[in-house]
Design brief:
Blueprint: H1 7-17, H2 24-34, E1 44-47, H3 62-72, E2 78-82, H4 90-102, E3 108-110, H5 118-127, E4 136-138, H6 145-156, E5 164-166, H7 174-183, E6 192-194, H8 206-217, E7 223-225, H9 233-243, E8 251-253, H10 261-273, E9 279-281, H11 288-301, E10 308-310, H12 318-330, E11 336-338, H13 346-357, E12 368-373, E13 376-381
Parallel strand pairs: 1-2, 2-3, 3-4, 4-5, 5-6, 6-7, 7-8, 8-9, 9-10, 10-11
Antiparallel strand pairs: 12-13
Helix pairs in contact: 1-2, 1-3, 3-4, 4-5, 5-6, 6-7, 7-8, 8-9, 9-10, 10-11, 11-12, 12-13
Organism: Menura novaehollandiae (superb lyrebird)
Keywords: Repeat
InterPro entries: Leu-rich_rpt, LRR-containing_regulator, LRR_dom_sf
């Protein structure tokens, strides 16, 4: 049963009871939460992240988490907990695992970039065998290793509640990726997974082939991140073959791989027939002008589903970029495009300046802004992109929800 909404008072009392000194950062966040008039009627997320502060804060440690958990056990109105960028270790993971086993209201948990290792991953994954409330878990940047990832793969065979799992930058390996692919052929609840930057000892597309096989059988996955997988054209071809049979995936992240124009040719053919993909991230590959033209042809002639495309840093010159600008003119569904880091010439600057000035492309939906010097148009960089707030989110409410969401406005994979 939930206590009255006085989190700070209960925190002070718990610290006294457990002989634990108060953490001023936690105390301040709880005081701010208590001032929220809707706290007793509306679900809230406690943002106790150790970054994004103008002044240093005392980051949350393992001992602090024990006291905080004892308070939250009686606060059913707290359905989200952001503990990113703190100093939690495997000991803190043990406390969190116990909390997850006992708690039935927490839906969002962000533990990204703490110091949780393999044993901590085992405890948290084990707790999710029984937990039936958590929908979104972020473990990004915790070095849980291949074995730690295997525990989450096993969990996915049992858990039927979790919808979004973030294991990016966790040092998982080949075995883990294969195990997760196998688990997702059976799991029907997970809608989004981040598998960015695994540690692969061989530069082959074996993991991509396994993931492609999974996509042929999975009908629930909406969002898939495969950045930094050393993926080549062969792997892209296998993914495209699978996506001809898949009707659920809407967000495909292939950024920071080794895809060239030959691989993009398969993506172009896929886009002509696929009626599901809404977001395609090809940031930091090597598609060049030929690849950009393949994409522009598909977007001009047949595809009316894709909403966002990132081709940042792909060695594309004016020829390819102008072709894409023409595709935007004829394809009204494509609303977001990110092009910075390519080879801008005068024709590129003029083409995208016209798109922006006519209102066809909004400044919030691209990463360039036009300016003029001595009668010549140039493009300046804007800090926008699909991953704008993937590792950071603003503490104020001034940013539109879709702008702060790597998945744009895809509701099933939002925080809740």
């Amino acid at each position: 049963m939930s206590v009255l909404p006085d989190l700070h008072l209960h925190y002070v009392q718990a610290c006294q009871k457990l002989s634990q000194p108060e953490n001023p950062f936690i105390a301040r966040v709880l005081q701010e939460a208590d001032k929220n008039d809707e706290i007793s009627t509306k679900r809230i997320t406690l943002k106790i992240a150790g970054n994004n502060h103008l002044v240093p804060v005392q980051r949350v440690a393992d001992d602090d988490l024990g006291v905080l958990a004892s308070v939250l056990c009686q606060a059913a109105f707290v359905t989200g907990l952001d503990l990113a960028y703190n100093v939690l270790t495997d000991a803190g993971a043990k406390t969190m695992a116990t909390f997850l086993q006992e708690n039935s209201t927490l839906r969002y948990l962000n533990l990204m970039f703490n110091d949780i290792g393999t044993s901590g991953a085992e405890l948290i994954a084990g707790a999710l065998h029984r937990n039936e409330s958590l929908v979104h878990l972020r473990m990004t940047g915790n070095k849980i290793g291949n074995q730690g990832g295997m525990f989450f793969a096993s969990m996915l065979k049992i858990n039927s509640t979790l919808e979004k799992l973030d294991l990016g930058d966790c040092d998982v390996g080949l075995q883990c990726l294969i195990a997760i692919a196998i688990a997702l052929t059976q799991n029907k609840s997970l809608k989004a997974i981040n598998l960015n930057r695994p540690l692969l000892s061989v530069q082959e597309d074996e993991t991509t082939v396994r993931i492609a096989q999974m996509l042929k059988n999975n009908s629930s996955l909406v969002e898939l991140h495969l950045s930094k997988h050393e993926m080549k054209n062969f792997g892209v071809e296998r993914l495209c073959e699978a996506l001809y049979e898949n009707s659920s995936l809407r967000y495909l992240d292939l950024s920071c791989n080794k895809i060239t124009c030959d691989g993009v040719k398969f993506l172009g053919e896929l886009l002509k027939r696929n009626q599901t993909l809404e977001i395609l991230d090809l940031n930091a590959n090597q598609i060049e002008d030929v690849g950009a033209i393949y994409l522009s042809e598909a977007l001009t002639t047949q595809n009316r589903t894709l909403q966002a495309l990132s081709i940042v840093s792909n060695k594309i010159s004016g020829k390819g970029l102008v072709a894409l600008s023409r595709a935007i003119q004829s394809n009204m569904k494509l609303s977001h495009i990110y092009i910075w880091g390519n080879k801008f010439d005068e024709s590129t600057c003029v083409a995208f300046s016209e798109l922006i000035q006519t209102g066809r492309l909004e400044l919030g939906c691209t990463d360039v802004a036009p300016y003029e010097v001595d009668g010549q148009v140039h493009l300046a960089e804007l800090s926008h992109g699909l991953g704008k707030h993937r590792y950071w989110s603003p503490r104020c409410a001034a940013v539109a929800p879709d702008a702060a969401n790597a998945s744009l406005a895809i509701a099933p994979v939002s925080e809740y």
